Amino acid sequence: MTQAIGWTGVARLGLVQACMGAVVVLTTSTLNRVMVVELALAAVLPGLMVALHYLVQISRPRMGHGSDVGGRRTPWIIGGMALLAAGGMTATLGTVWAGSHTVAGLAVALLGFLMIGTGVSACGTNLLVMLAKSVPAQRRGPAATLVWIMMIAGFAITAGLAGRWLDPYSPERLLQVAACICVLAVAITTLAVLGLERGPAPAADANPGSTPVAFGPALRQVWAEPAARRFTIFVFFSMLAYSAQDLILEPFAGSVFGYTPGSSTQLSGVQHGGVLLGMLMVAGAGLLSARMPQKAWARAIGSLRGWTVGGCLASGLAMAGLALAGLVGSDWPLKTNVFLLGVANGAFSIGAIGSMMRMAGEGRSSREGVRMGLWGAAQALAFGIGGLLGTLASDIAHWLLAAPGSAYASVFALESCMFFVSAALAWNIRLVTQQTSASTESPRTPEPRAAAMQVAHET
């Protein structure tokens, strides 16, 4: 069974997240560029493949259920990474083959992206479950921050090194670079997770000799839990708002503020810097709360619920600022506004991930994987359609409104309202948890009142 782990164990799981980021960025960034530039294919083709890899992640609840039944997460993490790496190589082979046989190559690349989405589902879902079950409550915010920073580092390091190794470009060099990244990802993941789960695997449904519940009934049981259901809706809605601005922020900066392509790319860097600061703020508050648990003010600033709700509200205000920027024009402090948006986004996302880790174990026992998978599927679907909805709303606004600034302002205002609604959803999840924690079936918490008090302390 998974035992409590220290910061070294958290860092080991962070290495797995970094490996996932390394393989994913190879396919979503490098292969995307090769298809569009070197192969001169329509940009919609890699775009559809990336969207497909998100769509496949609706399988996350099923992956989580499989590990719930077996009682171990390690095989799913290693197996998922192996499938992810195999998908990365398959997608790379298909991209290279598309240079001479377009249809056949794209078909192979499509298969690769399907494998990538499935591998991310198996590995990522069970990585979060292991993290949730092995990290003490007071460390979950800082632990989530560390793991996500390591994932971002995986993105950055892979993009930088792969870019250097690929010059001068050739199909053979692309295959070599992809093979190195994929093999290293599997090897590092295997070494990182071995030994984190100790002892015999727990019996299914925590009752020795019991018959494992099938996936369908297990999913219905989780969906019937008010807190889990409302948190799923919150994750989808908040991540939809989060991702809807990704593809229109830089065009907005160029169209309304006259930014050059280089300047708008730097603006994206400013936003990511804000996201990192927001994550670190949550981590610092969590560590301070853990050091001084007897202080009411320390517990308050370390509240994951507070960072989630507050981050959504701050994101809504920042998006409202961008709406005003579209109306005011060049006099508006755009960089400051975008930086503050990044800080708010980073704070609410880590607060939400930490809350996700806490809530995974609430409710019926042996359903942690299904809950985490359900929330991961909601996030993936939101990211898959967020960019499409953002650009579609922008096109409609430009068609209805003559002034570009007013068109963008209307879209940003809509996203601002989505963040405010997300804050209300996050607040209501806490209320439902309070009302139901004392009556929820859970063999691992024989004293319902004590469990409710623990939930209140963790938030």
Could you characterize the architecture of this molecule?
The chain is built from 17 helices and no strands. The protein is mostly helical and 459 residues long. It folds into 2 domains: 197 residues, MFS general substrate transporter like domains (Growth Hormone, Chain: A); 247 residues, MFS general substrate transporter like domains (Growth Hormone, Chain: A, Up-down Bundle). Helix 1 runs antiparallel to helix 5, helix 5 packs across helix 15 and helix 9 runs antiparallel to helix 16.
**What is the fourth-level CATH superfamily of the largest domain?**
MFS general substrate transporter like domains
The N- and C-terminal alpha carbons lie at a distance of 26 Å
The helix-and-strand class reads mainly alpha
Total individual domains? 2
**How does the overall form come out from the CA principal axes?**
globular
CATH class of the largest domain: Mainly Alpha
Report low-confidence residues grouped into runs of 5 or more.
Answer: 431-459
Name the helix and strand elements from N-terminus to C-terminus, one letter apiece. HHHHHHHHHHHHHHHHH
CATH fold call of the largest domain: Growth Hormone, Chain: A
Strand content: under 5%
Task: Please give the share of residues in helix.
Answer: over 70%
In round numbers, the mean pLDDT is 83
**Treating each run of at least 4 consecutive H or I residues as one helix, how many helices?**
17
Oligomer: single chain
Q: What Rg, in angstroms, do the CA atoms define?
A: 22 Å
Give the second-level CATH assignment, the architecture of the largest domain. Answer: Up-down Bundle
